[in-house]
Each structure stands twice: as structure tokens, then as C-alpha cells.
Amino acid sequence: MNLFDLTGKVAVITGGNGGIGLGMARGIASCGATIVIAGRDRDKAEAALRTLRQDGAQASFIVADVTKTTDCQALVSEAVKLHGRVDILVNNAGISVRKMPQDLSEDEWHHVLDTNLTSAFRCARAAYPQMLRGGGGKIINIGSMMSLFGAPYAVAYASSKGGIVQMSRALATAWAKDNIQVNAVLPGWIDTDLTRRARHQVAGLQGSVEQRTPGGRWGSADDMAGIAAFLASPASDFVTGTAIPVDGGFSIAM
Ligand code: NDP
After folding, report:
1. Are 232 and 205 in contact (CB under 8 A)?
2. Separation CA 77–CA 197 (nearest Å)
3. What is the pTM of this model?
4. Class in CATH terms, 10-248
5. Which helix (H) or strand (E) holds 141?
6. 45-55, pLDDT tens digit by residue?
7. 185: which strand partners?
8. pLDDT tens-digit profile of 202-215?
């Protein structure tokens, strides 16, 4: 028995064209799954496809803006057209607008919630019939340390990431009978485009993360590969509704 064999499975990863999404795509691909990465930036996607193909993966890119319901539906149907099925969905696309609550506009609030939380619901709904057809599935939703903690500059982001955990639990209870497992991953501080911008905007962030993290360093996108492989594979068939920190110990340290 190979607990991590994903041969013949198809995984869709939103925002899989860079950062954490690409790290997760590489982890899932290493188990043999075909990869579909989705996002808006074609140049980034071309580079990501080269990386995945160099790893030996079969991989495609589908343009999708996850704030659009039609794009999420088209993403799933296009993936099925290309590869015949969808077994694994990673809801990873996300943004942050760093402002104090009193300075955040209602439009900015909606944009963050829509991109980080509602999009995951949209894609999960779009993928559900295909997972049913395939006899089961795996949904991996990306939360954050902000699923657990608050920060003054992150009212919308923290709300969206708290919501990701509760949405994962609710979907897990709804779809367990269909052999669909739904889990959340809560990354610690990972070196990506998103946090490169944060390091410019939040004074002292680089050092404070290193100091608080028992692992003593920022994470890399590659650090996210293993949890993705686990939650996408038969090894996690009795794991559902959880929210698993992958954070070098950040969330257990004072
Ligand atoms: P990146 O900015 O590198 O990646 C974000 C990805 O989301 C991009 O590839 C982008 O693709 C995609 N994306 C954003 N908006 C949309 C949209 N409307 N439609 C489709 N795709 C979209 O950041 P990370 O890799 O760091 O972030 C990935 C996830 O991990 C996010 O959900 C983030 O909140 C979460 N996270 C990150 C942490 C970190 O420390 N880095 C910590 C905790 C959570 P494109 O440019 O093509 O639109």
C-alpha cells in the first residue's frame, strides 16, 4: 500500500502560479497527480509550469480570477475537459490589504473577503459534482496565523482567514458522507511575494518573526509541499475538518 500515491488524480490549485501555491503544487505533483494551476498572471504561470515540468509533472495553467463565479466554474470544467476529472482542490489564492480598521474602506473589506474566503466556497461548490463523480475528493483551504491571532493592520484578512477554518469544518461535516475530506492549513510566516511586501510595510517584521519562531527562521514555499501531499493523499482519509499549523512552532510559542 502506498499511502501517498496520487497516480491518475487531478489537482486544481488556485494561485498555484507562485509562492505557497506552487510549493503545494510541487508536493502534490511529487505523489504523481496531474496539476492544474490557476491565477491571473500568465508570465508567473509560465515560470511555474517550467518548474513543475522540470520536476516531471504533467501540468497546465488555466486563467481564472477567483472573485468571479463564472471563472471558478469555468476553471473546473476546463480542468475536466483537459484531464478528465478533478479530485483535489487547493484554495490558496489570497491577498492582503494592510491598513488600520478605521482606514479600510468597505470596498477593500469586500475585496479581501471575496478573494480569500468567498472564492474558496465558490471553487469548492464548482468542484463538488466532479468529486462526487470520482467517488471522493480532497479540499485544502489555506488559512493563516491570522486564523488564530489578530493584528491591528489585518481586520479583513484575519476575518477571512478565521472564516476559512469555520468554512472548512462546515464543508467537512456536509461532505464526509461523499468521501470528501476538507481541511485547512495555517502557514506561519513564509517567504513569498505577499510577505516581501509585508516586510516593507510592517517595521521590524523580519526580525520579530525569526525571534518568535522556535524554528528560528521564515518558512519557504517548499516547506508547504509535505502538508499538501499528506492532505491530498489517501494517508489523510480519516482526517477532516482540521486546521493544521505549518509554522515552525510560531503558534505554540509565547
Ligand atoms: P503570493 O502573493 O505569492 O500568492 C498569492 C497567489 O494568489 C498568487 O499566485 C495570485 O496569482 C493568486 N491570486 C490572488 N488574487 C487572485 C484572484 N483574484 N484570482 C486568482 N488568483 C489570485 O502569496 P502567498 O504564496 O504568500 O499566499 C498564498 C496563500 O497563503 C494566500 O491565501 C495567503 O493569504 C496565504 N498565507 C501566506 C502566508 C505567508 O507568510 N506567505 C502566511 C499565511 C497564509 P495571480 O498573481 O496570478 O493573480
Report:
1. no
2. 34
3. 0.98
4. alpha beta
5. strand 137-142
6. 999 999 999 99
7. 142, 244
8. 889 999 999 999 99
